[in-house]
């Protein structure tokens, strides 16, 4: 089954066994899992297994991607950081939206980087919520003064705060492909009016709660993306990772200055190096990126850790 605006993903399991592996693929890590765990699917960062009791083991690897390539170099502890941040946020979103996590009691080989989750019927939509202008939203605004059909006032700059939180959905592309922004009407046509309205309402509510929490800790949550699924009883729940540096754009409050690119707690060190002459890599060559130098790996790891520690107030160990 192809992921797209015109199709409904029946489950993570069906996605894993029916979606072809992209040419830009990578070996699945040997996690030394006990007997009975079946590998179902690997994305750019996550590996999905079916557990012996017919649930999903959701593992965050240390892989990192950039420019739609999974890089040959991993970032040590990245998967542990992303998992810890997601769990921290799931706790703080109780009362706003239920989530897919069942337990964090997982095999020793994936300790602190995995969680056992419910199987869900997943919606084929990247639910993006924006409170600030950046990234693909900035590009679309500069061309149309709107994002995903949502009109915005003139005069906004790179990094400007938007008048209110907006929902700017995108299609879910296969590994190695580009997500494409779509309008709310296209989402309605894909999944139905009631479901589309629920995803929009939940996305905005989660963003608003998270932005308030992050700002209290000295971070601006510029934008973020969510994935939702549906339980057999029809309840819509939050799935996948949530509000991590991989799925969100965080800026330090003290450095925010509209009108220019903002400092970000993500893999910008990686993108900058790959785009520089130092990497020797041509993005248009069709060849994969080279290994990252140690300095870039260390700086990127430090940024992920800093985001976790600033947000949670806990030391990463």
UniProtKB/TrEMBL annotation:
The answer, when asked if Nucleotide-binding is one of the entry's keywords, is: yes
Q: What region holds the SAICAR synthetase/ADE2 N-terminal domain?
A: 39-284
Q: Which biological process terms from the Gene Ontology are attached to this UniProt entry? A: 'de novo' IMP biosynthetic process
Instruction: Cite the SUPFAM superfamilies for this sequence.
Output: SAICAR synthase-like
Name the top EC class.
Answer: ligase
Question: Which Gene3D superfamilies does this one have?
Answer: ATP-grasp fold, B domain (3.30.470.20), Phosphorylase Kinase, domain 1 (3.30.200.20)
* Pathway annotation from the record: Purine metabolism; IMP biosynthesis via de novo pathway; 5-amino-1-(5-phospho-D-ribosyl)imidazole-4-carboxamide from 5-amino-1-(5-phospho-D-ribosyl)imidazole-4-carboxylate: step 1/2
Q: Which UniProt keywords apply?
A: ATP-binding, Ligase, Nucleotide-binding, Purine biosynthesis
Cite the EC number: 6.3.2.6
Gene Ontology MF terms? ATP binding; phosphoribosylaminoimidazolesuccinocarboxamide synthase activity
Q: Fetch the InterPro entries from UniProt.
A: SAICAR_synt/ADE2_N, SAICAR_synth, SAICAR_synthetase_CS
Q: Per the record, what is one GO cellular component?
A: cytoplasm
Which family does the record assign?
Belongs to the SAICAR synthetase family.
User: What HAMAP family does the database record attribute to this sequence?
Assistant: SAICAR_synth (MF_00137)
What's the name of the protein? phosphoribosylaminoimidazolesuccinocarboxamide synthase
């Amino acid at each position: 089954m192809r992921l797209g605006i015109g199709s409904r993903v029946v489950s993570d399991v069906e996605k894993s066994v029916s979606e072809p592996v992209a040419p830009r693929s990578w070996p699945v890590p040997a996690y030394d899992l006990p007997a009975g765990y079946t590998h179902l699917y690997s994305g750019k960062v996550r590996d999905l297994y079916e557990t012996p009791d017919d649930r999903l083991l959701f593992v965050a690897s240390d892989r990192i991607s950039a420019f739609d390539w999974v890089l040959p170099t991993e970032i040590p502890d990245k998967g542990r950081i992303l998992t810890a941040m997601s769990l921290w946020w799931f706790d703080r979103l109780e009362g706003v939206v239920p989530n897919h996590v069942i337990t964090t009691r997982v095999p020793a080989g994936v300790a602190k980087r995995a969680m056992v989750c419910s199987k869900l019927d997943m919606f084929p939509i990247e639910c993006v919520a924006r409170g600030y202008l950046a990234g693909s939203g900035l590009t679309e605004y500069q061309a149309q003064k709107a994002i995903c059909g949502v009109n915005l006032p003139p005069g906004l700059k790179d990094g400007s705060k938007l008048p209110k939180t907006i929902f700017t959905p995108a299609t879910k592309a296969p590994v190695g492909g580009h997500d494409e922004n779509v309008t709310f009407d296209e989402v309605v046509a894909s999944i139905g009016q009631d479901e589309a309205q629920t995803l929009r309402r939940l996305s905005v509510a989660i963003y608003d709660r998270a932005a308030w929490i992050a700002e209290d800790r000295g971070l601006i949550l510029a934008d973020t993306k969510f994935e939702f699924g549906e339980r057999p009883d029809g309840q819509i729940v939050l799935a996948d990772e949530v509000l991590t540096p991989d799925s969100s754009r965080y800026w330090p409050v003290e450095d925010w200055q509209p009108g220019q690119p903002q400092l970000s707690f993500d893999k910008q060190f990686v993108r900058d190096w790959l785009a520089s002459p130092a990497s020797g890599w041509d993005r248009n060559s069709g060849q994969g990126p080279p290994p990252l130098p140690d300095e870039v790996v260390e700086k990127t790891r430090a940024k992920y850790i800093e985001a976790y520690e600033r947000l949670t107030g806990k030391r990463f160990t």
